[in-house]
Each structure stands twice: as structure tokens, then as C-alpha cells.
Amino acid sequence: MTDTVPPLDPRRTALLVMDYQNAVLGLVADTDALLARAADAIATARAAGAHVGYVRVAFTDADVAAVPATNKAFSNFGQRAAYLHVDAPTSAIHERVAPLPDDIVVRKTRVGAFSTTDLHAQLQTRGVDTLVLAGVATSGVVLSTVRDAADRDYRLVVLADACADPDPQVHEVLTQKVFPRQAFVIDAHALREALSGAR
Question: How far does the chain reach from its first CA to its final CA, in angstroms?
């Protein structure tokens, strides 16, 4: 990535780790390397004093029953309902990037991080105006969250190599051509410099 990110104030910055769940990670390749990069980004954010938040997609039985037939993505769950049930181990956040007690953790029932959660309110309470995004899939939660967060006037940074998609070509198009219109797009190793530059 070639974006130059302005210095980020850690006190006003949150790294969002989105859909890093056992069931979702199984959709993409090379998860060991992906988890390692995400874990490094989390460690960097914590060391700098930035906030860390987690977004998880999971459904209760009532959530599944409430999905209308008009929703193409969620109305025909089939086997996915069991894998993404709120109590299923497969819907848990992967242990290598697990949250700590003081982190933000939200559960969603749609694609984006904001529409079915109180994430925006929690971020506002902490004074966050900058989001650093890592997530699976690039064409799912990352794309939806970039669009929504930009409309909410957050400064956005996407960690391209801490995002992944089942279709690598889609990932490439989004990170190289679509996201740069609304976000700075960098690799995870550049996060350290961005967070230290404001001090």
C-alpha cells in the first residue's frame, strides 16, 4: 500500500477487529498468517494506548426467526444458522485475537458493524473519531463498515493485509480502487508508525 496516513492520536483511535470468528475465518485462505498480522496490529494498538473493539456476527433463535424473506443474504441460512448461533464455538472470536475485559465487544445480526449494534454510541463515549479496520470478509463487513463509518464522519484506515476475502481479486479491487476514496489503506506494519507519530 502507498497511502501516507497522518499521525493518529491513540486516545481518539479504535482498532476494530471484525468477524475474526472460527466459522468466518474458514472461508478464506492462509488464516495463520492473517491471524498473525491481526494479532500484531492489536498488540501495536494496545501498546500505543489506542482502543480495541471487536465485532462479531451471531444469532439467537429469535434473531433467525425475525429475518424477513426480503433479505437475500440472511433469509436462507441453512447450515450457517448452526455455525453462527450465538452459543456455538464456531461463532466465537478466534482465541489468537481474543478481546480483553476492557475492550469494546458488539454482536451484530447484519453485515455492517453499526446497523444492529450500539458500536457508534460506545465509540462516541470514548471520544473515538478514527477507526482502523481489520476484518473478514473484505467484501462483507469491511466494505459495509467503510461505507457506514464514512457517512458517520469517522477518519478511516483499512489494514489491507489484516483483511481477507474468499475471492482475492475482489479483495484487491476493493483495497486498491474502492476503499481509497474514503479511507487510508495501509499494511498492518505501518500502523505502529501512524500511532507513534502523534506523540
Answer: 24
Q: Which of 17, 40, 25, 21 is nearest to 195 (CA)?
A: 40
Tell me how far apart the alpha carbons of residues 110 and 194 are, in angstroms, rounded to a whole number: 31
* pLDDT tens-digit readout, 147-185: 999 999 999 999 999 999 999 999 999 999 999 999 999
Q: Which amino acid is at 128?
A: V
The reported pTM is 0.95
Q: Domain 10-196: which topology?
A: Rossmann fold (3.40.50)
SS3 content of the chain, % helix, strand, coil (to 5): 45, 20, 35
Q: Determine the 3-state secondary structure of 4 from DSSP.
A: coil
DSSP, collapsed to helix, strand or coil, labels residue 53 as: strand
